[in-house]
Amino acid sequence: MEAAALPAALQLVASGDTGLSLEKRAALGASLLLLQRDYRFERVWFWGCIQGVRGTYYIAQGLGPDLAAPRSRLYSLNCAEWSLLPPATEEMVERAELLTGRFQGDPSFEYAYAEVNAEDDENFQDDGKELTIKEENRLVATIEQIDRAVGIIPRRALMKTPLGSVHENRSFEGLSLTEAKKLSSYFHFTEPVNLKNKTLLEKADLDPSTDFLDSLEHDVPQGSWTVQFEKGSTVVVLRSLLWLGLTFYHVPMTKQYGYIYCGTGEKNLDLPFML
Amino acid sequence: MAEPGGDPGRLPSEGSEPGGESHRPQQLEAGAASEYQEVWPRSDPPGGLGKRGIHRSLTPMQYLCHPQGAEETSYKQHVPDINFSQIYALGQDSHQAQEVSVYQTYPLGTQEPRGAYQTYGGHDRYQAYEREHGPYLPHEPGYGLYQPGYGPYDDLTPDPEQRMLACQNAKAYLLKSSVTSGLNLYDHLVNVLTKILDEQPTDPVDIFENISKDLKAAQFQKKMDTLRDEHEILPSFESAEMRRNLFLKSDGGDEEREEELGGTPLPNVMETAFYFEQGGIGLNRDETYLIFLALKKLVSVQPVQTCRFWGRILGREKNYIIAEVQYSEGEEEEETEEEEVIDEGDKRMDLVEDEDEEKEKSEPPKSTYKPPPVIPKEENGTGANKYVYFVCNEPGEPWVKLPPVTPAQIVCARKIKKFFTGRLDAPIVSFPPFPGNEANYLRAQIARISAGTHVSPLGYYRFAEEEGDEDEEGGGGRDDYEENPDFEPLSAFEMVESLSTWVHHVPSILKQGRCVWFNPLQKTEEEEGEEEEEEKEEVPDELQQEIGPPLLTPLSEDEGIQNIPAWTASLSPKLTPQYAVAILQSNRWPGAYAFACGTKFGNIYFGWGQKYSLGNHTPALPPPVQPEYPDGPEIREATDPTVEEELAFKAAQEQKALEGMEGEEEEEEEELEDGEEEDEEDD
User: SS3 of B597, please?
Assistant: First the structure.
């Protein structure tokens, strides 16, 4: 969520375990602004926190003028000092998927590969050392996975220019109450996967400047999002059941929206059993 | 004063005196300019390009001269005649007589403008003008209008044809209908002026807008869309009303005051929330306050001894807010009595049915299968059912009581993993099939979470008078604990450093599903047996008594999951440790938190209600296929022998009997009889 809107947003999104104490919130208010200054970001998003066993990582994202460009990610252990994370590569994501269990809370902790497939034998180094992954890389990969899978924005909040860059839609006035209840009014904020597979008939109804992303309607499994009106139907809150801890909020008929992840950083693979 | 040039009645021609120019136009213009200003303050100057064509027949000079004779399509022209004529009188001697004569023809302020029209209409206006007015001078607006080539705008619309065209265009433009109202300007102006001239109000120029508006309103235009927009009733209104009712005083205002004085079961939710907030746990303050008020309502309705905000469980459609309540003595007994009555009634029914069944003769053999004995649930007020839980979806909604939990439900809840939907009557579709609906599942999860994660600082609770009962119950655990008046709190730092400073104060649930072990084999086989006495029996051969960790065990004995400790302790806020609060997070039940600060402590749960499992959840497999009845000769099928075969067999038997007749007749007869009986049955 936007750094500027953080205090108000946290009020709306508080599901009990956001893990942001007053101390942290106050620190964030100051340090996020400094991040913007130091790294010359156009806007800074507070992404959320990943709770490890011994410590918690607080993650922030910085964006440039084009919102579709790769984002810079930073992490901190105390919300005051931030370190830049390396950009996520596909290889990193694949390797991190093999790991299970909680984060430790120490960025330099090394995980040893527990499972070795036949394919991975090639990757073994000559001296027979097992592959290890640093927790930092696992962190990057997890954040990338979460963003790809469940990072969402309301429809028409962002616009795509004919040149291909994406920026904020200034005439976005918020979703109406009826629209806010439907999953089709929310888009995944990543490269679209299903868009090309739509039939021509469906594509005819779309507006290429605003409907350039996948909507949540066809997420598998169905039911992996919960849509709730909270605070007496003034805020619509979407929670993901696939990545437990991701909360998206939007106040209908206003421009306020954002998402935050506060959880252990593990995918809920038991979801089909739990629905 | 200019001297009258030529025939005063004649319109000025080209050869008009120059002398006459200077004065007359000046004064005329000076005065008339002001008149012009007044008369036509808001409209285009007369003779404007667009309208010129229309007013061609009546030049501005004509307006000046014949205010009443103006056409409808002209501008409003309430010309104060008197002033006007005076000006004219001043300005033009030559015209004066003519003017007067003209004016006399049409009496000032006449009430019958139509008459004026009529008389006027007889003449061609131009000609009348021509005859009656003196020659215009070139600078005057009306000059040379009727003389081609000399009009002031002649260069703009030189061609009469073009002027005609322009006139038609302008009129067409005026006739264009508006989309929104269906009127057009031409008709509207016609109507307005007709109305004015009909009614002849005083100062019509000042009320012109009102006249226009009234006319528009009077035009009854049927609105195409006859549906009225219904005022939208948003769902937020209802929930807002519910929440507002929390703030209104209920009827028992006086009673509440008495309760408050005497010590209330209502917990100080805000204080607990403050401590949790230090650790970043909890809902925002508004929600917490609403929950506080909702709890207050609960306390005023139910006779409770203690009450606590247990936590919030998220669901797919709605969330649950849960309150933990301990009833005062009287209430519990009533409920258990009801249940006993129901049980006894059932038992009697069963007895009657058994007798009936035995009387029937031909019935399939009774199966010898005895289902595993049902382990009875614990009494209300003890063990897992020590507290009663109330839930609601949103603060302000009425509280619903959850039924007590049975061991079977707990055992099953351990095997399944399901999200809550938010509706208490939703069925739980799972394998193994859960005995109950969502309300029971919720209660089972609450029991498990409470047993696993409710902790308190060491020393806060202590056992009631020790009676040395340890040996007797086999370490089954002591149920009673009470607050320790001598409790000395440790500093937050110490609380965080080592987990042995915290203890569980809720008995853990055994594998059986109860807190206190129940021996099912004790139960006699008839169903007439009454409520069982538990414990204090010799351990039977088959089942071993289950022993759980005793009450008030420190957390350091809690098993972790692989290499993750069961609890994570942290001090919060970190920068000011002298005032910090010790916060414990459970890793086995993500979402369970506990805090301790000085003499205060608390437990709370915010989460989805699921236990943490490292690997993937593997649901229980269905039981293996049961073996069939072993295949033996007694059930082997064979074709029935035919009649011929039977007779042949009989004959063979008889032959044998005849051969072996010595001392075996009786046996043979028996055999024959048996054979005959077999024959009979086969037939």
Answer: strand
Q: What is the pLDDT of residue B76?
A: 46
Provide the CA A41 distance to its chain's centre, in angstroms: 18
Q: Which residue has the tokens 């006449």?
A: B110
Per residue in B189-239, pLDDT (tens digit) is 888 899 889 888 888 888 888 888 888 877 766 666 666 777 766 777 777
Task: Show the tokens assigned to B500.
Answer: 């042995």
What is d(CA B295, CA A77) in angstroms, rounded to the nearest whole number? Answer: 37
Phi, psi of B272 (to 5 degrees): -60, -40
Both tokens assigned to B505? 């104060």
> Quick one: DSSP state of residue A122?
G
Contacts of B418 in chain A (CB under 8 A): 273-275
Q: What is the pLDDT of residue B131?
A: 52
Q: The whole model's pTM is what?
A: 0.65
The closest CB to that of A233, out of B236, B277, B319, belongs to B236
Using omega within 30 degrees of 0 as the cis cutoff, is the peptide bond preceding B148 cis? no
Nearest to B280 among A21, A223, A264 (CB): A21
Measure in Å the smallest separation between the Cα of B238 and chain A Cα atoms: 8
Residue with the larger pLDDT of the pair B654 and B231: B654
Place of tokens 């860059």: A165
| The predicted structure's pLDDT at residue B442 | 93
B284 contacts on A by Cβ (under 8 Å): 10-12, 14
pLDDT for B391: 93
Lowest-confidence pick of A247-251, B341-345, B554-558, B639-643:
B341-345
Q: List the one residue out of A207, A204, A196, A198 whose CA is nearest residue A169.
A: A207
Residue that has been written with the tokens 């609960």 in this structure? B298
Please measure the distance between the N-terminal and C-terminal CA atoms of chain B and give it in whole angstroms: 156
pLDDT at B520: 67
Percent of chain B with pLDDT over 90: 5
In the predicted model, is pLDDT for residue B344 greater than 50? no
Q: Measured between beta carbons, which residues in chain A are less than 8 angstroms from residue B574?
A: 23, 78
Which range (A177-181, B24-28, B162-166) has the least confidence?
B24-28
Q: Which helix (H) or strand (E) is A22 found in, with range?
A: helix A22-39
Three-state SS at B119: helix
pLDDT at position B546 is 66
Q: Which residue has the higher pLDDT, B557 or A177?
A: A177
Instruction: Check residue B210 and give its pLDDT.
Output: 83
- What pLDDT score does B446 carry? 93
pLDDT in tens, A233-272: 788 999 999 998 899 989 988 888 888 998 888 888 888 8
Closest CB to A17: pick one of B234, B286, B606. Answer: B606
Q: Kindly report the nearest CA distance between residue B279 and chain A, in angstroms.
A: 5
* Distance of alpha carbon B130 from alpha carbon B68, whole angstroms: 18
Q: Do B608 and A244 touch (CB under 8 A)?
A: yes
Please name the residue of chain A whose CA is at the shortest distance from the CA of residue B585.
A53
> DSSP of A129-194, one letter per residue?
PPPEEEHHHHHHHHHHHHHHHH-EEETTSEEE-TTS-EEE-TT-----HHHHHSGGGEEESS--SS
C-alpha–C-alpha distance, residues B52 and B124, integer Å = 18
Q: Please check whether residue B179 is in contact with residue B221, taking contact to mean a CB–CB distance below 8 angstroms.
A: no
Question: Residue A79 gets which letter from DSSP?
Answer: S
CB B133 within 8 A of CB B103: no
CB B106 within 8 A of CB B119: yes
DSSP state of B367: P
Q: Which residues of B393-416 are buried (b: 16+ CB within 10 A; e: fewer)?
A: bbbbeebeebbbbbbbbbbbbeeb
Residue of A267, A240, A264 whose CA lies nearest to A57: A264
Q: Which tokens belong to A167? A: 């920026």
Tokens at B635, concatenated: 């059930």
Inform me whether the C-beta atom of residue B243 falls under 8 Å from chain A C-beta atoms.
Answer: yes
Structure tokens at B680: 């009979």
* Separation of alpha carbons B134 and B24, rounded Å: 12
